[in-house]
Design goal:
2 copies of one chain form a homodimer.
Chain A: H1 33-37, E1 53-59, E2 65-71, H2 73-76, E3 81-86, H3 87-94, H4 101-111, E4 118-119, E5 125-131, H5 134-143, E6 145-150, H6 157-160, E7 191-199, H7 202-208, E8 211-219, E9 231-236, E10 242-246, H8 251-261, E11 269-273, H9 289-299, E12 303-306, H10 309-315, E13 322-330, E14 336-348, E15 369-377, H11 391-409, H12 413-420, H13 429-440, E16 451-461, E17 467-473, E18 479-483, H14 491-503, E19 510-514, H15 531-558, E20 565-568, E21 571-574, E22 577-583, H16 584-593, E23 600-605, E24 612-623, E25 630-640, H17 647-666, E26 697-702, H18 724-736, H19 747-754
Parallel strand pairs in A: 1-12, 10-11, 14-15, 18-19, 25-26
Antiparallel strand pairs in A: 1-5, 2-4, 2-6, 3-5, 7-15, 8-13, 9-10, 9-12, 13-14, 16-24, 17-18, 17-23, 20-21, 21-22, 24-25
Chain lengths: 757, 757
């Protein structure tokens, strides 16, 4: 999975205008690489506080059941237990530490079901124990007696909507009957949310079509499978101040969550974001931190919560599955006249997600579009974000059908897409698709028996979020960035490059320090592809603020005007007079004796519009006709990154996202028994790909700059996961002649399709 | 030692111009008080790192000796020893971790004497051992065999200068013969430094005098006796990055010291300043941190150094003693015609200090002044700073003689001083002396038998140093200061008040976080009375920077112009329209969604001229004629503080400094045997006062603002220690009729004087 391919660079001069152009666009070693490979990086589980205790959860073994009683008396007798909490003790225990009863009771609702209430998925937390060892806490959990009344469970959204289905979240009234499509006339049950949209007139569009296609696509739940599980250590001081050390994508988000769920003032909470071993959208807080804090408040000792891998599968927030029905009309002139979509999203015991259905429309000019999308409850945990939330599912439906249409109509799927793609300022849809097609040699592609090619694209627009940074120049001429950024993917490295670029020093002379929420200025969480866009702007502004002071100081020393100076190679020089220069180290030292003092710049950014990007992917597969096993033999991959700050890191992002998308299509699925039990809650049974499962990936970075991104950057973390499922299905169809509408494409499923079942 | 007296406030309106005037000038609870009284504050010795080991030093038992051999072989065999270092192993051991041999050898020179070199004071570090327990390290030290050739020692500067004295620091050539005074014609030996000054023509001045006075004053070494001894914990990562947790007045100073002494790049060192339990000038680094780092580098495990109290006396950096000869000419019109001074400062095995002799001139208009001052080596540790370095010693000589002159001439010492004091802008010498005289009822003072009154003043001008601060507004409307300030005396509290004042929020809504040298912007060390002056300016500027953003954000929201807004009581209001307002919390939240992003202000400051202040003190004593015991019965104290940010904290500073000055005069002294051994190396034998030794102190704060201090602040940490010794001697003279020229005024010494010895 390495790429050493040349990049398509559309712009350099216009974007290098703010710097010397040497430090960005440079493939540098990650700033955290040495810490990580030497084991020096501190993950939350590496933390050992004096007197620390260990938490274990008592979880429901049932997918759906009513709690009849909870008895902790035997557990409380166990020597070494320091705190036991569950819903009915919580209001009592915690009343003294919160300001009023309303707040105390609010906690209960969110964190545990009470006696008389139901557990809605296997693994629901029923109680938590902290003890001086994990083993004692486990034994205490075993001693807690919980009586359940088992209820019928729902694990398929197509069952949940039926008018005979049990209701998961009472009270619940059926939705208005669906107007048309696969569920026409049905008043859906267990609807947790819905999203409807209508552009133009789909009926007229379908009438104008020469041909109408209609399919149902099914995609299961997938798990983000970050390497590091959830870990949280809470420490409560005598004055009530809470310090939480946690594995999170956003420590400020954890602080807000805790303040809200525990009704505490923000100023009483300090969150230390430890080195994170992956998140992919699952680690914004809410799963573990409130429990470690509540236990620590009760025990008056530090408490560590470490999820097991099984707990990650039972009670984290994986990506939702979906059933998506798509209908598309096309004319013989290769235009799309209408597209309509109906979708049921498996939202487990929670809600949210179905809005992503609008991504089925894709990157195309379609005047008539209509969607009716529903969040449907099942007896599974609530879903969460996974890289580009909802995009792989919606893109599977939209892009697979585009390919199917092209196949049946005899059109080239690359040419068809290029003809129908939206255009606009800051967009490079066509260039991106052409780049990957050129790379793959699409127009002259070859295949043997049982081989096939697939292509798909997925779009994404990065978010923006509030970010701040401090950039200071030290006496040794080195530059330091201080902020509240949680680096998951190498963003600290990009920030160092941006500061180096602005200041005219080497990347190697910039170091980066992350502060906790007490010390760092506010930083948005690392998700939504916001980081390089938002923090990049904050760091750029902070570096510019520092640069102004550097120039003033140098101008005074060199007896020149600021306009006559240039910054490069770690020094400030009078233009046209290379002899007249002063080094950054000298300026850093002079500043300490100057009226202005030490050189410290600050920069903040919140939200400005970003521009849409697409990931375009091409795969070649070979299908074993005896077993149905799919081998991916070639992979091509392009993305419009706006501007590649660290091309090597961009390539890593693209390849990682691509693999996650294809893996969802090829092998990943969370499997549930009819009673709601998860049947593959561990990495032995939930298969994720290894390096041997994928070929090398050829990657092309396209650079169409945005106006508002630093140096033109677009957020790129999420888009590469979007097209994979559709690309894989289409390649398998090209190899086998069979369109399979449900993933993953396990050998069994492919073989069955090839056998015409 | 409490004071609840009204204050003389000269200015408020002019200085409150930048704020609402409610948050400064307010006596508030110290921001760190709860942490300290509940034991939550983390001192360096509270730190326990996994795998930590403990260091013990092998020290010279001799005051002056040549090292003939060092044999560590038996110590190395001891199980549990992880590192042994001494001069001759150091170059070899450390060559691999430094860049070149020159650097490696530089370390050796500074840190240990080599075989063949001499130890110059008892307690000189000869070797250091780290082991898994302190007991094992102690045993290892006992097993190290060091052979010494004992040399004659010098403990009195008057002996060191003689032409028969042994030389302590070879090579050494005698100084040019002294021109006049007590050591006229002598080519002084063991001179480590000298300082000469001549204003006007002293010979002419003495000729013009009606009367000339001449005395020799002798003051011993005193120890700063901070509660917390030196502690340093060093941790070295695999990549060589050093983290030091230490008790210091300046963590950036420790970083620089380590970088210099260990020849390491600044960026490879992070210093965490832990809560400090007192420093008084002794904790700027150099005594322990280099050793903990060297041991940790060798052991590849964390190493903790904790000084014992005995080690603090043997091998820290106490205040130098001095022998000061003063000659002053006065006319009958109460003017001073000339003053000349010759001084020998006991600089131990080091150098520095004698420049303070110029303080003998005092706060008076004296056209003709001459001084010849020498640093003289003795077999004692090098001295360091103690509060106002050199001021108590010089002021003892200068101010005692002023009082003696007044007594002999029949002049009132308050009136004489007021007549002769310098005047100038930003100075309030006379007002300060008058304030304390009024407070004490000087003009109508009474005394019984064996009672006496003394008065003295001491001047000081605070330094300035580079400082930076970050002030941010959070979503809950709270304000946070982040910086690299080591708070010893309550300065964090003053900084919170300054930020609150500028922003118009309550002091209680501001919190303060100290960063380590990796995360905080540069901050000067806490010494030289610089903190409230320098950091106060940095915080004020940072708060103003944040305020600009607050006002912009509020103006946009309120549809008003920035000029029409006012900040007070945690909200921003349109002037004249109290209904039109927005809270800080709202602004903090809006900023996160605004184009400008989170509100973060930065401020830096370096050096601007400050103005001189004086401390004026009056004491009443009663002397027991049978025993010579001196009881201080009344104490009055005033200081020109410029502007009292937190009057309660100012009073604490004044009282603490006063007590240290009087204690030096009354009881404190480091006592040495002729062979250089310290005879009172512990708090059982080195007496410091308790609360029972002093009466309540009446304190008056005078406020003559400086131009460059924030809100007019002058640095006040140091001046109150200056006048005490002179004030006490003079009060005892008033009680006994005897001028005693040497302190401390132990009962023996006073009784001997009363008996005419």
């Amino acid at each position: 999975m390495t790429a050493t391919e040349p990049r398509t660079t559309k712009t350099t001069s216009s974007n290098g205008a703010n710097g010397n152009g040497h430090q960005i666009g440079r493939s540098v070693q990650r700033i955290d690489s040495l810490d990580k490979v030497t084991g020096r990086a501190k993950y939350a589980n590496d933390l050992h506080l004096p007197g620390m205790t260990y938490a274990v959860f008592l979880r429901s073994p049932h997918g759906h059941a009513r709690i009849k009683s909870i008895d902790t008396s035997e557990a409380e007798k166990l020597h070494g237990v320091v705190a036991i909490i569950h819903a009915d003790t919580l209001a009592r225990d915690m009343a003294s530490v919160v300001e009023d009863e309303i707040h105390a009771s609010r906690r209960v609702v969110k964190l545990f079901p009470s006696v008389g209430e139901t557990v809605k998925y296997q693994g629901t937390k029923v109680a938590a124990v902290a003890a001086v060892t994990r083993e004692i806490a486990e034994e205490a959990c075993e001693r807690i007696q919980v009586e359940y009344e088992i209820l019928p469970a729902l694990i398929d959204v197509r069952e949940s909507i039926k008018d005979t289905a049990p209701i998961i979240n009472e009270p619940s009234t059926p939705a208005d009957p669906v107007a048309d499509g696969p569920w026409a006339g049905l008043a859906l049950r267990n609807v947790a949310g819905q999203n409807h949209r209508a552009d133009g007139d789909v009926e007229a569009g379908f009438k104008a079509a020469d041909r109408v296609f209609e399919d149902t696509y099914v995609i299961p739940r997938a798990h983000q499978t970050y390497i590091e599980p959830h870990v949280s250590v809470a420490d409560v001081a005598m004055d009530g101040k809470v310090t939480v050390y946690t594995s999170t994508q956003g420590h400020f988000a954890v602080r807000s969550n805790l303040a809200n769920s525990l009704r505490m003032p923000l100023s009483k909470i300090n969150v230390v974001g430890m080195t994170i071993g992956g998140g992919f959208g699952a680690k914004f807080g809410g799963i573990v931190d409130a429990y470690s804090v509540l236990l620590a408040q009760k025990a008056l000792r530090p408490v560590k919560v470490t999820y097991t891998r099984e707990e990650e599968f039972l009670d984290a927030r994986p990506a939702p599955g979906a059933v998506i029905h798509v209908k598309t009309g096309v004319k013989n002139d290769r235009t799309i006249t209408a597209r309509q979509v109906w979708a049921l999203w498996d939202t487990g015991a929670g809600s949210g997600g179905c809005g992503s259905t609008s991504r089925v429309k894709g990157v195309y000019k379609i005047d008539n579009f209509k969607m009716d999308a529903y969040d449907i409850n099942t007896n599974k945990p609530a879903p969460g974000a996974y890289r580009a939330p909802g995009a792989p599912q919606a893109t599977m439906a939209g892009e697979t059908q585009i390919n199917k249409i092209c196949t049946e109509m005899g059109w080239d799927p690359v040419e068809f897409r290029i003809q129908n793609m939206r255009e606009g300022e800051q967009l490079a849809f066509r260039e991106t698709l052409k780049a990957v097609a050129d790379k793959a040699g699409w127009s002259t592609r070859q295949k043997s028996d049982n081989e096939g090619w697939g292509v798909a694209v997925g779009e994404w627009t990065n978010g923006g979020g509030p970010a701040s940074a401090i950039v200071s120049l030290h006496e040794d001429g080195k530059v330091r960035i201080f902020y509240g950024l949680m680096d998951i993917t190498g963003t600290d490295t990009a920030m160092a490059q941006i500061a180096a670029e602005v200041l005219g020093v080497r990347y190697e002379d910039v170091s980066v320090v992350r502060g906790d929420t007490d010390s760092a200025p506010f930083g948005t969480a690392s998700g939504g592809s916001v980081v390089t866009f938002s923090f990049g702007n904050a760091v750029k502004r902070a570096a510019e603020d520092a640069r102004n002071r550097v120039l003033e100081q140098a101008a005074e020393h060199l007896e020149a005007s600021v306009e006559d100076l240039e910054l490069a190679d770690g020094k400030i020089t009078v233009k046209g007079n290379p002899e007249a220069s002063v080094s950054f180290a000298q300026v850093g030292q002079m500043a300490l004796r100057s009226k202005g003092g030490p050189i410290v710049g600050r920069g903040s950014f919140a939200s400005e519009p970003s521009a849409t990007t697409i990931a375009a992917q091409i795969a070649k597969v070979k299908v074993d006709p005896q077993t149905g096993k799919v081998d991916i033999t070639e992979l091509y991959n392009s993305l419009d990154v706006g501007k590649a700050i660290n091309p090597m890191a961009c390539e890593g992002q693209l390849e990682g996202g691509l693999v996650q998308g294809f893996a969802w299509g090829l092998m990943e699925q969370m499997v549930y028994a009819p009673d709601g039990r998860n049947l593959n809650a561990g990495l032995l049974d939930y298969r994720i790909p290894t390096a041997l499962d994928f070929p090398d990936i050829a990657t092309v970075l396209v650079e169409e700059p945005t106006k508002n991104g630093p140096f033109g950057v677009k957020g790129i973390g999420e888009p590469p996961i979007a097209p994979g499922v559709a690309c894989l299905i289409s390649a398998v169809a090209d190899a086998t002649g069979k369109w399979i509408h449900e993933v993953p494409l396990t050998p069994e499923r492919v073989l069955k399709a090839m056998q015409g079942a």
